[in-house]
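Researcher: Hi, I'm a grad student and pretty new to this. My advisor asked me to get structures for two proteins we've been looking at. I'm not sure of the right format, so I'll just paste the first sequence and hope you can take it from there.
Model: That works fine. Here's the first sequence with its structure tokens right after it:
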Amino acid sequence: MVLLSEISKSELTRKAEILKVLGHPERLAILFLLYNEELCVKELMKELQISQPKVSQHVGLMKELGILSFRKEGTKVLYKLDNLEVREIIDTLLKFL
């Protein structure tokens, strides 16, 4: 068990930010899609039926928090879920679906 005194306030704030990000249905859907594969914004748009600005905003926020990583392939930017803690949360959520 982790003692609250062992966790810094900044770490608690970061964890809370990640949980807020995961609380949005569109961002959660993006993470489900990126769980096992890399996709670009256009592919995410097509799959989720949401606009490019919305997808880009969601992806940018998750990239900023260190949830997603990316790599360039020509002119395409591919994103993937690259955070072990978030993968564990997604694993747990998938058990309840």
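Researcher: Oh nice, that was easy. Here's the second one.
Model: And its structure:
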Amino acid sequence: MDRARAVTILRAISGYQLSEGRWTRVDRALRALEEAARSGDQRAAALAVRDLDLVGPVRLRNRHGDPPRRPIPEETRERLNRLVVEFEEREPAEDG
């Protein structure tokens, strides 16, 4: 997994406005990334980062009836911030 890419994606997510369902997907991917980081599973970490990259905001304007978008939920923000700190503090040699 590319740590720098993961941090870039994580930082971008904090500014997103997403529907509740998309925030649920973000949170699920963040949990998977946490678990992968704990276990050292680089493949699982790379897959979680890919999922986070794909869940970004839809660039089309909202239409009537689209789910409302909202900023990042506090619990998700806290999880995301912990991961950013962890990845930034980790030595490059540990990034296998």
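Researcher: Is there anything I should tell my advisor about the second?
Model: You could mention this: Residues 18 and 57 are 6 Å apart (CA to CA).
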